[in-house]
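Can anyone check this?
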Amino acid sequence: MTIAPASDTDPTPADFRPYRGKVWRLVEAQHRISTNRLAASAEEQALLESLVEDVKPTLPVAARGLHYLLSTPFRYGHSRASRFRRAKERPGIFYGSEHVETAVAETAYWRLLFFSRSPGFVPPSTVVEHSAFTVPVAVDRALDLTCAPFDTQVAHWMDANEYSACQEFAASARTIDAQLIRYASVRQPDHHANIALLDPKGFAALTPAIKQTWHFRYESGRITAFAAFPSSARYSFTFEIFGLSAP
């Protein structure tokens, strides 16, 4: 397949297509309210949370009213770049996966990447609990990198470490008011699809549905992710699978 330069297929409104689907995302169980450990009463907790809210970056208007698991990704300009967002770029992006196993693989990658970039750090062997939730998404202005005309640039979109082409594409997508980018996962072996939601209005529900609990354990150079009962799903990931160096 011939790989066209990234600039040859800048997105246009003619490339828009509707997208409807339910996507998965994993978050550490720390998402549960923890300020109650610091407050002696419900009133004090409410005051503490209000003070914390005052020092956070402003939430985009379109994200207001959403559950915080949905709105938080749009609030922050993280110092670490991601596939479709440059470092410290705002507004943020909500990343999701069409299959739970893809969301698990993406989570495992970021944990192993952190370990890999932390010389001398001894990864904990304790189990880290994650909650897997779903949320419906419905937009009319989606761009699908797995379809023409963008599928000729698969090497750009699926580079394991270099995100500049994807970030430039996302910047161009925003100029034409694109709401969502659909793309193949680099981390999941079957390359199931992920989505990068650019517009908080693309959520078809205000609140996510917590569906599963997953436990991540690091041991002997690998992360094993296993779903809580009654599921028996289990996946294992090593540094080598993701092209990372062990710490």
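Reply from J.R.: I decoded it. DSSP finds five helices and eight strands in the chain.
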